[in-house]
Amino acid sequence: MEISVHFYSYLKELTGCARTVETLAADTTVGVLHDQLMEKFPKLTAMKKSTLISVGVEYQPRDYVLHDGEEVSLFPPVQGG
Amino acid sequence: MEISVHFYSYLKELTGCARTVETLAADTTVGVLHDQLMEKFPKLTAMKKSTLISVGVEYQPRDYVLHDGEEVSLFPPVQGG
Amino acid sequence: MLNTSLVNRHLTITTEPIDEGALLCARTMSVGMGAVVYFLGVVRGNEDGKTISAIEYEAFEKMVTHQFNVLFAEMEKRWPIESVRLVHRIGVVKVNEPSLWVEVIAPHRGEAFAACQWLIDGMKRVVPIWKKPVA
Amino acid sequence: MLNTSLVNRHLTITTEPIDEGALLCARTMSVGMGAVVYFLGVVRGNEDGKTISAIEYEAFEKMVTHQFNVLFAEMEKRWPIESVRLVHRIGVVKVNEPSLWVEVIAPHRGEAFAACQWLIDGMKRVVPIWKKPVA
Predict the structure, then answer these.
(1) Which residue of C105, D15, D38, D74 is most buried, as measured by CB atoms within 10 A?
(2) Contact residues, chain C, for B7 at CB < 8 Å
(3) Alpha-carbon distance D113 to D104, whole Å?
């Protein structure tokens, strides 16, 4: 399945791109996708602990099972206000 | 000595007047003045515990010793806002 | 009490309606300030379960001014505020109209919220203003 | 999320300056309401000890809207508020200009202060907006 991944704030600067498309086996989890992204963009590894991950507009844990066509976003801690 | 006494809010309704002048012996305390006022205006007695007393613009305790010409105010708990 | 602090203090006790727009226009704040907290107390349509049309506020004005200045001085010791402005309306204030407007400006949010709430709590403890519901 | 509550909810995410005067004019409150709490977050002239001229705010807008609505719904369960209005500016916001405006209206002061502070704390936890200082 294909999953579109968006990067925000300084994660975008670390990867050098705002968006990538990953091809994954069925039933891949958010955690496995994150590991795969850190292999592809090694600079993401330093931010591993503080990275927040959403699927669509909801936060999801590492064991969330992805579905074809879902949009995943990775970003650092939020700082509104 | 002469002490001018002002009543505010519903203490004014209980006494029926906004102001009275009391003639007191030297070194009379706020507490003694309050007792004398409750004798003169018995309806004040019911409010004894909750009555606040200021001399000029400062709150003073019952043992504060009054001086000639000072202005005393008696009023119920405040309710601004 | 002389205001010897560098804090912008503004206190108005008035029988006129509170003009939020004008108060807003008169606000000044320096580049170090990050938080403005603003409170408006409005007369509600019922008091102790009874429907009312207004509240009449009575004040012992000379003492009101003094006690507010004591509170301002204490607040300025506790929090690094740059500005405190307070307007309290007295006389008859109709339902749905504001009787109190307070604004506190400080570098950070927590300070501004804490100082503003402390000031209102202090006012309700020591500032000689009283209410009488109008039927 | 559909807003099925009777609460007046207003959310704006905008690159335009925040117009407090216009927001003030658009306020409505019923006769049962006694408290308006209003917060303004303003860009300060230094960030982490460095002098800056502005902050650039980036937002994941679709998620921002959703997460604010989740916070509003939770807030309305916890406190009897009648109205919550929030404006967050994005893009470049100059020093001394507001980036955030929040207003909460409730029957009593304590509820309005608690709800307003809870909303801002919640925003800083879950709403995907990020800052970048501009030198």
Answers:
(1) C105
(2) none
(3) 8
How distant is the Cα of C17 from the closest Cα of chain B, in angstroms? 14
> Which residues of chain C does B56 touch, with a Cβ-Cβ cutoff of 8 Å?
63
Chain D: closest CA distance from residue C92 (Å): 16
Question: Is residue C130 less than 8 Å (CB to CB) from chain B?
Answer: yes
What would the DSSP string read from start to end of C66-121?
A: HHHHHHHHHHHHHS--SEEEEEEE-EEEETTSEEEEEEEEESSHHHHHHHHHHHHH
Q: DSSP letter at C57?
A: E
Query: Any idea what the CATH number is for the domain that residue C8 is in?
Result: 3.90.1170.40
Q: Tell if the CB–CB gap between D24 and C29 is shorter than 8 Å.
A: no
Interior/surface letters D6-45, b for 16+ CB within 10 angstroms, e for the rest: ebbbeeebeeeebebeebeeebebebebbbbbbbbbbbbb
Which domain, by its residues, includes D126?
Answer: 2-134
Q: What is the pTM of this model?
A: 0.94
Query: Which residues from C are below 8 Å from B78, CB to CB?
Result: 124-130
The answer to whether the CB atoms of D36 and C42 lie below 8 A apart is yes
C54-102 pLDDT tens trace: 999 999 999 999 999 999 999 999 999 999 999 999 999 999 999 999 9
Q: Give me the pLDDT at residue D4, please.
A: 56
Question: Strands, DSSP E only, in chain D?
Answer: 8-14, 35-42, 46-47, 50-51, 54-59, 83-89, 91-94, 98-106, 129-134
Residues of D in contact with A50 (CB under 8 A): none
**How many domains is chain C partitioned into structurally?**
1
Instruction: Name all domains of chain A by residue range, CATH numbers in brackets.
Output: 2-75 (3.10.20.30)
